Amino acid sequence: MSEMILTCLLILLMTGGGTALTYLYEKEDSLLVRLAAGNVVGSAIFATAGFLLACFFGFLIATVFGALVITLLPVALLTRKDFTRRLKANLNKARGKLDGANVTKILRFAYYLGVFLVLWFFFERAMIETENGILTGGSQNLGDLPFHLGAIFSFAEGNNFPPENPSFAFAKFTYPFLADFVTACFVKFGASVREAMLVQNVFLGFSLVVLLEKFTVKLTGNKAAGKIAPILLLFSGGLGFIWFLKDFWQSTSGFTAFLWKLPQDYTIGEKFRWGNSLVVLFLTQRSLLFGMPLTLIALTKIWEIFSAEKDEEKVTGETPEQKTFSIFHFPFSAFLVGLLAGTLALIHVHSLAALFVVCAFLFFFRLDKWRAWLAFGGGVAVIAVPELAWSLTGSATELSKFIEWHFGWDSGKQNFFVFWAKNIGLFAPLLVAGLFLIYFSQKSEPSAHDLTSKTKNQKPNVEDLLLFYLPFAFLFLISNTVKLAPWEWDNIKVLIYWFVGSLPFVAYVLASAWEKKAVLKILAAVCLIVLTFSGALDIWRTISGQINYKIFDKDAVKIAEIIKQKTDRRALFLNAPTYNSAVVLTGRRSLMRYSGHLSSYGIDYEPRESEVKRIYEGTALADRFLQKNNIEYVIISPEETGNVAVREEFFYKFPIIAEVGAYKVFKVK
């Protein structure tokens, strides 16, 4: 419990710095939105500053503390009268929302509490520590959890700075690693890795929900749509519930008993490839969980630039007080958000790529906003260009493996339209309906009833909305015609932004129907259930503990502790090319780990894999390959004997420095 409190405290401190910074780029926001943005902004600043300090001075407590101090610097802004006044206004407004309970306030509180609990119980299953070892409760997390643990421990235990790929020694670590670096910082302060990951994931997930709600309301002007959009994202799924009903019909169990023993996932598998966002993305790809809320902050600012009138204050998004930070009406708020978006280069590069596509499209439709566009783009470039230059220089990744013509994403031999109909169900027709509804409804004057459900913002211009959606539609098109990664399924990292850009329009249809007659209310409710039923099944399967995949057994955990005690933190190990070697838990480097991860990053691993196998086979070339690769330790365990041919007697000429059960570590240098 103390470790969890420590992690929460560190996150709250980062959130404080980030929240103070929001007063520089956002005129009006609720305290909740500012805190959500502050969590993400503070984490981005902390991660970037901490990474730079660690590269220069090593990964020390003082380094992490220095990054925290830098993150807290914006708090000094709150000493200014204008910022203090706006903070007090936020606090008073938030206090007013808590006073005088009524149905609306209770439902609003229940909504956020429900979302928080779902996120907590879901992410709690990401990593499970028992006396029998380390497990995961995520059906798609079997390989991803050890990958992230390998990164976290390489920072926290191995002082891996500048970062070297812990899964492929001697190569630069180019995977967007800042989410794992932040976790490592919490571990450095004394938190356990499980508690640090859990709290960080939940806070980022909740921030994502709040920021997606704001983005949706900004686009549609409809508060109900803002509440619906995050539900559609978290519980996303297609028509898998039909197969669920079929499985239930063929079973002999009662409905309740069947729910507690679901035989499979219903959004991902052989029949479905889209996957529920929590199950296949936010649990497994922690970088996206960090990157998406930051991208939503940038997209919201881009929408403000794109849809603003020519009035300078609306174009720049600045109040008279904020202009004290500007020179010649320089769009400071756009520049600042651009700086924050630039950190995506090491947080989640696919998010940065999606953001680039959106800006490239919209720039040519609003050339009159050139000052704001250049300010935003310049801010991005200041941070992103050096980070990208650093990550691409000397990388083992072959970029030529990332671009290739490939139609239909991961549809295989299925009919393209049938494939997408199965995977997203009603989402596509409701998206089309939403675009048409916005086109026709926003051409007419709003009724008094409509005005009660709108924000204080003016109704968005229909032409602006439809043009704003074009780049998101392009993301869908390009992801279905070009393979953007060595593994075609990884196109989902771009496709998810088509989905996010489409959510406001689908949510608007459902909200509009709910505000009408009883028949349409029922139809809206049915559509919402159909859209979320399959995803809810997969989330329930995770939360209810039906999945318990063992990744590391108890002997692997024990020998990892011995290795940390008896070897140098920069030691180089030879282990089988698998995802769950005990070396992962030590923070030590591996000559090579899981080939599936390496191939997905465009790394040519086959020559090295061949040498690994020759060494374990104890061939005449084994000693030569050990010397060539500067191997210091060799581990032999069930993972090695189960994945490669091992001639164990070859290694008995070397001293054994650690042995637990079937696990042995030989010192070969």
Quickly describe the structure.
The chain is mainly alpha-helical and 669 residues long. Among the domains are: 216-543, no CATH class; 551-667, no CATH class.
Summarize the topology.
Layout: H1 2-25, H2 31-57, H3 61-72, H4 81-98, H5 103-123, E1 128-130, E2 133-136, H6 144-156, H7 178-188, H8 193-220, H9 223-234, H10 240-250, H11 255-259, H12 277-282, H13 286-307, H14 312-316, H15 332-342, H16 344-347, H17 349-365, H18 370-392, E3 404-405, H19 416-424, H20 427-441, H21 448-452, H22 462-479, E4 482-483, H23 492-514, H24 518-543, E5 549-553, H25 554-566, E6 572-574, E7 589-590, H26 595-600, H27 606-617, H28 622-628, E8 633-636, H29 638-643, E9 656-660, E10 663-667
Parallel strand pairs: 6-7, 6-8
Antiparallel strand pairs: 1-2, 2-5, 3-4, 8-10, 9-10
Helix pairs in contact: 1-2, 1-8, 2-3, 2-7, 2-8, 2-13, 5-8, 5-24, 6-7, 7-8, 8-9, 8-13, 8-23, 9-23, 13-15, 13-17, 15-18, 17-22, 20-23, 22-23, 23-24, 27-28
